[in-house]
Amino acid sequence: MRHWLKSDPIVIVAGRGAVLRDDQGRQYLDANSSIWTNLHGHRHPAINAAIRRQLGKIAHSSALGLANEPASLLAAKLAALAGYSKKHTLARVFFSDDGSTAMEAALKMAHQFALRTGRCRRPKFLSLQRAYHGDTVGAVSLGHIDLFHKAYGGLLFKTDIAPAPFCYRCPFNRARPQRADARLYRQCQWECAGVLEQKFAAQSKKGEPYAAFVFEPLIQGAAGMAPQPDGWLARAAHIARRHGALLIADEVLTGFGRAGPLFACQKESVAPDLMALAKGMTGGYLPMGATLATRPIFNAFLGRHDEFKTFFHGHSYTANQLGAAASLASLRLLQSPASFRARNLLQEALAEALQTLWPLPNVGDIRQVGLIAGVELVADWRTRRPFAPRQRMGARVCEAMARRGVLTRPIGDVIVLMPPYCTTSAQVERMVAVLRQSIEDQTLKKPTLESLS
Predict the structure, then answer these.
(1) Of 223, 225, 229, 323, which one is least surrounded by beta carbons within 10 A?
(2) Is the model's pLDDT at 293 over the cut of 90?
(3) What does DSSP assign to residue 390?
(4) Going by C-beta distance under 8 Å and a sequence separation of 6 or more, which residues neighbour residue 197?
(5) Cβ contacts of 2 within 8 Å, gap of 6 or more
C-alpha cells in the first residue's frame, strides 16, 4: 500500500478489443484480460447490443421467490453445456455475484448434503496445497496460501491439505523443467497422487470420510499458474469418488474456454457434483457467479414448509437480468465455429511467442494451459532459486511493461499473460516482446532503494 500511494495510478477511461486507453491518451494492451475476466474484448458489439436490449425491458428484479426470462434461459444453457450424462448431470443452477460467492454456495451445499444424507457428523473438506478459492470466509478456509490467508486464521474453519502436482517445484524431486539437465531428476511415479490416496484412506478409517474434495481443474491460478500434468485430474477424481466424496470444481478461472475446452473438467471427462463459475461468465462485463449442482444435491433441500430444509443463502442481485443477458450473448460467441478457430490459433501464437523467452537467464519456467500462461522469474534457473521478496522483481517487470504499453499483474515473481480471445497474433507477439524487454531491463539493472521500498 505504501508503494501504491507514492504515485498516481493509471486511470483507464476507454477500451476496444484488446486495447485500453487511459485519461492521458496512452494506449495499452490488456495482457491479463482485466484480471482474467474479459473473454471477447472490450466493447464487443454483440454483448453491447444484448445489454442494450435488456435495458429496454428491465435492469434488475428480485429472484427471491420469483424468476426472470434471461436468467432462466442462462441456467438452462449452462446446465446443458456442463452436462456429462443422464446419470450425472449438473442440472440445477444457483446464481450469485462472483467467484468467491459461487464457491461459498458450493461449500454450504456440500456441508448440508453431507449432514442430511448421514454421510458425516462433522463434514470436513480436502483441498490442494497452494489452493485459492476466493476471499469470503468459507472460501478462504478452503485456501492454503499463507500470504493471502494467514492473517484471517482466527476466523476460519479447518480444512485438510493434499499435495498439489506443481511439477516445477516437485517436493519429490521428480520435476523435469524444460531447460534443466534431465539427469538431475528421477522418473515421476505420481507420488503426489499416492499421498492424496493416503489422505482419503486415513480420514475414512476414522469413520469421518471427507464430505468433498475441492480443486481447480487443470491449473491453479493464484498458486502461480501451476498446471497439473495430463491424467492427474482424472486420477484424483477417481480416488475421491472411490472414497465417496463429492467433487467441487472451481472453474472460476478455467471456465468458458480459458483452459481449452468450454469447461476444464471436460478435458479429462471429470464430472463434478458442484461447479463454481464466474469471471468470464458475462464476457467480463458485469459481476455474476453461478454454482451448478446435481439433482441429488438439489433434492437434499426439498421438504415440507415446516421442515425448513431450504437453502438458506441468497444475494440481492442474484440472477441479475443484465448479467444474464451479457452471459447469453457471450455463450453464443463462444460456441461459434469462428470463435473456436480463433482461440486455437491464439493459443498456438502464444505458445510460439513464449518460446522466445527461454534464452533469458532469469526465466526459470514457462507454463501454459490453453490461453493461460505464467512465466516464473528466478535468480538462478539452474537451482530454481527465487528472487528475494524485497527485490519486487515481478512487480518491477510489470511496471516496466506498463511503461511500454502492456498491462498485466504478477503473482509474486510469476508474470501472467492471459489475452482476450480477440487478440491478434501481432498483439500477442508484442505482449511477449515487451515482457522480454522488461525482464532484461529489470534483471540487468541494479535495484534502487526507492524501487525496493
Answers:
(1) 229
(2) yes
(3) G
(4) 239
(5) 453
